[in-house]
TrEMBL record:
Pfam families per record: FAA_hydrolase
GO CC, alphabetical: mitochondrion
Cited PANTHER family: ACYLPYRUVASE, ACYLPYRUVASE FAHD1, MITOCHONDRIAL
Name recorded for this polypeptide: Fumarylacetoacetase-like C-terminal domain-containing protein
Every Fumarylacetoacetase-like C-terminal domain range: 15-215
Species, as recorded: Canavalia gladiata
GO biological process entries: oxaloacetate metabolic process
Stored InterPro entries: Fumarylacetoacetase-like_C (IPR011234), Fumarylacetoacetase_C_sf (IPR036663)
Amino acid sequence: MATAACQKLLELSTKIVAVGRNYAAHAKELGNAVPKEPVLFLKPTSSYLKNGGTIQIPHNEGSLHHEVELAVVIAKKARDVPESSAMDYVGGYALALDMTARDLQAAAKSAGLPWTLAKGQDTFTPISSILPKTTVPNPDDLELWLKVDEEVRQRGSTKDMIFKIPFLISHISSVMTLFEGDVILTGTPPGVGPVKEGQTITAGITGLVDVQFNVEKGKRTGNS
């Protein structure tokens, strides 16, 4: 897929399918069991934030955490895709952050509720430009990194993912149709942590792409 066409994929996106606990070390750092099958949740496309934008900390939420992830961008409609041909449905890749209001997530988990408020707010999915599939010959061996100001917080490799990309596409497409432009967030390596107002996040895929976002406190709106 040509570079120009790749950049338009996110405009077509209908959903973000995120995979939780897909790195064993990250599952353990949060006190979670390593899953036997993918842990999936959805994020709205309204949470996208382009490179250079400003991440908003909810005004009433004091614990916003960063999670750096490889994003897989779907090229065409996918339903009940076999693992053997799953990579044919990939249009490109991106570097993304799954910003998480950790206190809200903890409260939701303890009450058996969805993670929507913790994961789906505006600016909670910062994302890079799309890398055409042809420019990423081995997505199973990419180094992801993230810094807050000048402190390295996360550094890990996609080779440590529990569930690999072909399996994820096959599994997800067995329960829901993936459309052109949809994004799969493949999980985060260990080292997640909080960010505060005034800090700057830089992150990247070594040798391929990097992003930068400032962090600000959000304004109170409506009855929130």
